[in-house]
Amino acid sequence: MIEQSSNFGSVMIEALEGDIRGKFRRSGYTLTSQRKAVLDALEEVGGHPSAEDVYIAVKRKNPRVALGTVYQALSVLEEIGVISCKRWSESPARYDLNTAPHLDIRCTGCGRVSEVPGVEVGNLETEIQQNTTYKVRSARLVIEGLCPRCQRV
Ligand SMILES: [Zn+2]
Predict the structure, then answer these.
(1) Residue 110 in contact with residue 149, Cβ under 8 Å?
(2) Could you tell me the domains of the chain?
(3) Which of 34, 71, 78, 105 could form a disulfide with 143 if both were Cys (CB 3.0 to 4.6 A apart)?
């Protein structure tokens, strides 16, 4: 189940597209039609879809696309920082067009993933780096709970 939470205005989409093009240019990867189709599907589905959710959306317009192609495109998009990916236990990886540091909560009842409003993630990576001798590559908090609907069951 996917929550339709992100409604970007057209100005926002244009800024986003410029940003995406810049990230592709710097990475050396090409924004192929397949990668573009995957991005469009992510935007269309909204929320925090799994690879399979994205695949289903891409397939509607490109019936011959293979699941492996969608996985590869998602992996490139994640690698160059165009999308983010979060992994909870007992759930397929979820993809997100929002790459800014933020918290997402997953309902252990129905599997729905939503953004957590009003809580700052802060400089977790910088602070860990300052307190250890590690060069931090990523720091992700995985939040789980029961959504209002599942609390009533
Ligand atoms: Zn739930």
Answers:
(1) yes
(2) 10-152 (1.10.10.10)
(3) 105
- CA torsion 66→1→46→116, rounded to 10°? -130
Residue 43 reports pLDDT greater than 70: yes
| Cβ atoms of 45 and 83 closer than 8 Å | no
CA of 71 to the centre of ligand 1 (A): 26
CA of 110 to the centre of ligand 1 (A): 4
CA of 29 to the centre of ligand 1 (A): 38
For 116, which DSSP code? Answer: P
Neighbouring C-beta atoms of residue 38, cutoff 10 Å: 29
Neighbours of ion ligand 1 (CB under 5 A): 107, 109-110, 147, 150
pTM above 0.90, yes or no: no
Using the mean position of ligand 1's atoms as its centre, give its distance from the Cα of residue 105 in Å. 10
